[in-house]
């Protein structure tokens, strides 16, 4: 099995990053693959003829898009094998441990805990069992799955169980520790049990369970009645790192119910957190604007590098730039900061533009700015009006069937020698990696948003809109796809990273 976990154990920083962003996605992926029947419907490698995603979806009675979102991740994790003709089969070690009835029973039991686990905060506060369509000892569950040794049939099975059951439990423990203020308390130094009980409102049993599991995760240690961060946690969660991490956990918490009910989404494309609903989208993105602003500095490095890259082939002086789905404004403002005579139009939903305005003002680029509220699904962006149009992390918001129309409107709005700048998570040509990109795409499916594409898939859609020249340049954490009409000069390599922050 190629599951990327065995080599060297991850550092606490890497683990926290994973628990904050993807551990609950991974648990939901495995739990739903099991409940939908994917594992049972796949032939075992070497035994039966591999089947396509379409055949698999038909066999289990689920949507092709839903099954594909699961399968691409299962292939990337090494649990399912995909051949060059995109035929799918279950790997032998997975087939073996899933055929073990006792192991299967453990998975089924763990599956039922998602909803009650989401009420951990209440369990910590009361110290008691919860009634949630039955009686659930959530604190007891944490004890059992983290602190009791239950043998698994093989190391592969143990790894699978960990991803299946403990991943989401870790995420929710940290969401809860953040919400109750426990992590903030510990970040200021060693604390006595009485002080922690008073500050967090936890019951004794609740606090003890949290501290025991946090200690097991290498985050805290307790001597007598005094608890503190471990040395590694203290270093990792220093300064702004803890508030940043807590924000990531609270973003992940927004997906909890949708992940719990993922089977409904995969079977019937019923979206529990439907970001195509304007009200839900406004609330969600307004909530997330803090988080988007928190990553401003790192994204600004990327956007400045993109602006410098484009300046190598086309002057930015006097350029008209349109930034569609601007969010924090981080992409458009990089063009404004690179060239003081460039004019930038920031397009987004009205509530989000307030945040963009503040950021643009802070960077002293208001004089070059126009703010344009609207709906990117339907907006006519005009004709031959822009030298550069930026689509930064926004195509993944659009359902795949709407991309041709989007590219048509954008191509029309570009001047004849204009350049379209797409900043996206671009998949490899097999669509089975990189892993972080696939998890990001999985959340987009979950929320009825878009899909991630490979470079050649983008190139085909862009060519249909007349933008036949494309290049794909890898930035450090995402990719840049540049597109233009034939004959327009496109950069073939990235400019070096800009030195000092502007
Ligand atoms: C993933 S964020 C990207 C933000 C920013 N471009 C960045 O890279 O940080 C997607 C953006 O698309 C915007 N968006 C989503 N649906 C929209 C709609 N129907 N009309 C206008 N903007 C929309 C959201 O408000 C959000 O700011």
From TrEMBL:
S-adenosyl-L-methionine recorded as keyword: yes
InterPro entries from the UniProt entry: COMT-like (IPR016461), COMT_C (IPR001077), COMT_dimerisation (IPR012967), SAM-dependent_MTases_sf (IPR029063), WH-like_DNA-bd_sf (IPR036388), WH_DNA-bd_sf (IPR036390)
Keywords: Methyltransferase, S-adenosyl-L-methionine, Transferase
Alphabetized GO MF terms: methyltransferase activity
Domain annotation O-methyltransferase dimerisation: ranges: 25-92
Entry keyword annotation includes Transferase: yes
Domain O-methyltransferase C-terminal: 292-467
Gene3D superfamilies, sorted: Vaccinia Virus protein VP39 (3.40.50.150), Winged helix-like DNA-binding domain superfamily/Winged helix DNA-binding domain (1.10.10.10)
Taxonomic superkingdom: Bacteria
One biological process term in Gene Ontology: methylation
Descriptive protein name: Methyltransferase
